[in-house]
Amino acid sequence: MKSEERKRSISNLGKAGWIWRKVLQNCFPYVAVYALILLAVTLLQLAVSVINKEIVNRLTGDMQAGLLSGTFIGLVILYLIFYFLQKTSGFMGAYGNNFFRFQVDGFFQRMFMWKCSKLPQEYFFETEFMDRFTLVSQHIGNISSYIGCICGLLFSNIGYVLGMMVLFAIYEPLLILYAGVIAFFSLWLNRYISRCEYELNKKQVRNQRKENYFNGLLTGREAAKETRIYHLSDYLMEKWRSVYGLLRQEYLDMNIRRTRLWNRQARFLLYIRIPAVLLLAAGIMRGRYDVGTFIMLFGLVKSCGEQMNSLAYNIVQGTYKDTKYLGDYYDFVQPVTAEEIRELKKDQAPERKLALGGFESLKLQGVSYTYPNGEKKAVDNVSLTIKKGEIISILGYNGSGKTTLSKLINGSLIPQEGRILLNESPLGEDGSIGFPYFGNMPQEYSKFSIPIRDHVGIGRIELMEQEDARRDSYKRVELDQLIAQYQQGENTILGKEYEETGINLSGGEWQRVILASAYMGEPEILLLDEPSASIDSLKENALLENLREELRGKTAILISHRIAFARLADRIIMMRDGKIAEEGSHEELLLKRGYYAEFFEKQRDLYWDREEVSV
User: Fold this and answer.
1) Residues in Cβ contact with 530 at an 8 Å cutoff, skipping those fewer than 6 apart
2) Of all helices (H) and strands (E), which one includes residue 381?
3) 112/335 Cα distance (integer angstroms)
4) Fewer CB atoms near the end CB (10 Å): N or C, the chain?
5) Chain-centroid distance, C-alpha 127
6) Packing angle between helix 89-118 and helix 338-345, nearest 10 degrees?
7) Residue 139 in contact with residue 325, Cβ under 8 Å?
8) How far is CA 612 from CA 543, 604, 607, in A?
9) Beta-carbon neighbour count of residue 530 at 10 Å?
């Protein structure tokens, strides 16, 4: 067991080395300023002790001579200056600490968020991944804590302790043993407490997520309506209370254990200081050193416990506890290249490039996908070719796999079996090469509380500031008419999450915003999943007529459980149980009198005149 822990420790130290390199490459000026402040404060503390000794000795000599010398007065003035600086050193240390921590935390938080945005979305459905995600996200601050501890060791603790040891060695060598005993005890205590805290944090991640979930239901907006309609507050409160009580009890037990150990440490420091003071008393009585030296050594003995505990804390926190969190962070964000770090540091959005040239074809070859913890394949051995200029309609009932297939097509999900070729080139494992080709209108979309212009602009974020591109997208879905109703126009905030003047849209209005986003920047392929799900039949007919004009000469993939979209398609793909049940044009599939004909017959009264076509 100890051998495994040692291997993990070595591994984590290697990962901490990677963190250090990134800090020095990206945040060096801020860390350097903090290190200089620590060094100045440490030298100041030692200087005050030495000056205090000289003052006492000079005062003793001057009293014997019956006068106060200029040297004594100069030492007093110097002492007062240094004493004042020492008293303000807490502010200097806090300033230096905040100065570098904001920069370090910001950089690594940004890297974490960037990495999250690149991960396949199915990861966020895996419980074990979400536990890792939660643990890492809650402890990104331990990176700057680690840097601070190491800087504290190198530029404060070690320097002060070495200076103290030198003074002990010169005047009273036995005090080195006193300092060593304190250091050993403090190291053991801090390591034990750190291990317990880390293990508790890992243990509580799952319940913390559960507590946050029920807390959000009770205090958030999303479930506010249901909570009141169904009188769920007592039920949800009990759910929250049960897990919160467990977390609180575990934290309480940990804090009680930690407090007891700290109390034992305080008693130990008191007991061990007694023989050290007696040693000093014996030394001055025997004339081994003068009064000034006695006062200096007495002050160092008094501060030795605090300094050794600080040294032990920084050693344990920096080289033991924090490195565990750094190891977790490293495992989460890797792999990440220097080029990617340069990109994430840029303020502007990266230019969207068609890495494989203009769109010509997209091929799915034996593609399958199963969701985490899924019992069966959501998409099962699907092969499909889409060519430039084709309009494809993927139809099927709920649960047929059509939405999952659309996510595989645009790279949101990565095939677990088979492969996808864009312009005859296999797409990479992250699907990012294919993203720029699509204008997406997903069935489930995030309703960001941002201005209308931004929500539309994110469809092609590098063109967001181009007014002509935005207004063209507004016009295509008649969103310009909606925008004209509001005093702030396209700068109107969607939702009231943080802005009182924000607006709440209906489901149909939201779909127009998302559709406008899909049109943004003339994408190579339009992929629209249930574009009429939130509108009534009259508006749906208008939408269909609008789409008919907008899709002329374009490549598009239309996903729906409604037969209306068959009217727009060159080719229809019928999905059932994750597989392609039938494929062909509207006329071809009707002649087969199969699954599509049955699907069509049940809905045609809504979308077709009976005399227009018969099965």
Assistant:
1) 403, 443, 559, 560, 561
2) strand 379-387
3) 12
4) N
5) 17
6) 110
7) yes
8) 21, 10, 11
9) 20
**Alpha-carbon distances of 408 from 363, 489, 495, rounded to whole Å:** 11, 36, 30
Read off the tokens for 434.
């294919």
Cα–Cα dist 496/503, whole Å:
7
Q: Are 455 and 430 in contact (CB under 8 A)?
A: no
> CA 321: distance to chain centroid?
20
Cβ neighbours for 211, distance < 8 A, ≥ 6 positions apart: 240, 243, 244, 247
Query: What are residue 583's DSSP bridge partners?
Result: 573
376 Cβ contact partners less than 8 Å away, ≥ 6 residues apart:
370, 578
Length of the chain: 615
Residue of 519, 529, 589 lying closest to 557 (CA atoms): 529
- C-alpha dist (Å) from residue 24 to 29, 76, 106, 589: 8, 41, 14, 64
pLDDT value of residue 604: 72
Q: In 3D, which of 24, 31, 22 has the Cα closest to residue 109?
A: 22
How far is residue 241's CA from residue 487's CA, in Å, rounded to a whole number?
45
Spatial contact of 428 and 411, defined as CB atoms under 8 Å apart: no
CB 492 within 8 A of CB 450: no
Residue with tokens 């340069």: 342
Q: What is the pLDDT of residue 614?
A: 42
Residues pairing with 361 in the sheet: 387
Q: Which letter, b or e, does each residue of 56-66 get, where b requires 16 or more Cβ atoms within 10 Å of its Cβ?
A: bbbbeeeeeee
Residues pairing with 441 in the sheet:
528
CA atoms within 13 Å, Cβ hemisphere of 206: 4
Phi, psi for residue 562 in degrees, rounded to 5: -110, 135
Residue pointed to by tokens 């591994």: 11
Quick one: tokens of 100? 């570098």
The DSSP secondary-structure symbol of 465 reads T
pLDDT for 539 equals 66
Q: Is 607 helix (H, G, I), strand (E, B) or coil?
A: helix
Q: Are 32 and 150 in contact (CB under 8 A)?
A: no
Distances in Å between the alpha carbon of 31 and those of 40, 147, 600? 14, 8, 68
- On the 0-12 / 13-18 / 19+ scale of CB atoms within 10 A, 399 is middle
What is the structure's pLDDT at 351?
A: 61
Q: What is the largest CA-CA distance in the chain?
A: 127
Integer Cα distance of 49 and 171 in angstroms: 14
Structure tokens of 144? 């700057």
158-171 and 291-316 helices cross at what angle (nearest 10)? 150
- Mean pLDDT of successive 10-residue stretches along the chain, which has 615 residues: 45 82 87 85 79 79 76 82 74 75 88 83 81 89 86 81 88 90 90 89 90 85 79 87 91 92 89 90 86 84 84 79 86 84 66 81 94 87 93 90 91 89 82 83 85 90 88 89 90 83 85 90 89 65 73 87 82 93 91 90 64 43
- What is the C-alpha to C-alpha distance for residues 47 and 53, in angstroms, rounded to an integer? 10
The whole-angstrom separation of Cα 487 and Cα 190 is 60
Alpha helices in 66-126 (DSSP H): 70-87, 89-118
Spatial neighbors of 605 by CB under 8 A, at least 6 apart, are none
What was the pLDDT predicted at 54? 80
Query: Do the beta carbons of residue 326 and residue 146 sit within 8 Å?
Result: yes
Query: Is 308 within 8 Å of 269 (Cβ atoms)?
Result: no
